[in-house]
Amino acid sequence: MALAYITYKCGHSDNVQIYGTNVHGERDRKAAWYGTIDCPDCKKAEAAQWCADNGCAALVGSDKQVAWAEAIRREAIAGLEIAADMIPVDAPEAVRRQASEVIDGAKAETRASWWIDNRDSGNVRGAIDYYRDAQC
């Protein structure tokens, strides 16, 4: 394990603990990877802003829970919206209504603990994966 001073894509810097060996440059690659992502604070701020802009209810929990849950919720809801946009035009109206109700229900969930506890459940994980696949 080693402590590495890294600079994130957003320009912020931090000391990050990187575990594992460096026999084949693993730690060096991990440190370089950190330069391709935004820092955790910027990710949290971006997720909170997205949730506020998209009509999500305020989350209830500790500051740390809320920050983590907002990131999970942002990706899950964005994935659901991408999936809903792909419903064929000739699909029954009930299908569109049901998709809208699912999205509205996700936006209305206020317990940060629910998002954290269910982040790996089939439906939430599937929506997040759908969002991440669309970003590639």
In a nutshell, what does this entry contain?
This protein is mainly alpha-helical and 136 residues long.
Task: Give structural notes.
The chain is built from six helices and two strands; from the N terminus they run ββαααααα. With 136 residues, it is mostly helical. The protein has a two-stranded antiparallel sheet with strand order 1-2. It starts with a strand and ends with a helix.
Secondary-structure blueprint:
Layout: E1 2-7, E2 13-18, H1 26-34, H2 40-53, H3 63-85, H4 93-108, H5 112-117, H6 122-135
Antiparallel strand pairs: 1-2
Helix pairs in contact: 2-3, 3-4, 3-6
Label this structure with key terms.
two-stranded antiparallel sheet, 136 residues, single chain, 2 strands, mainly alpha
Query: How large is the share of residues in beta strands?
Result: 5-15%
The main sheet comes to: 2 strands, antiparallel
What average pLDDT do the residues reach? 89
Structure classification: mainly alpha
Total beta strands: 2
Q: Please give the radius of gyration in angstroms.
A: 18 Å
The spatial strand order of the largest sheet comes to 1-2
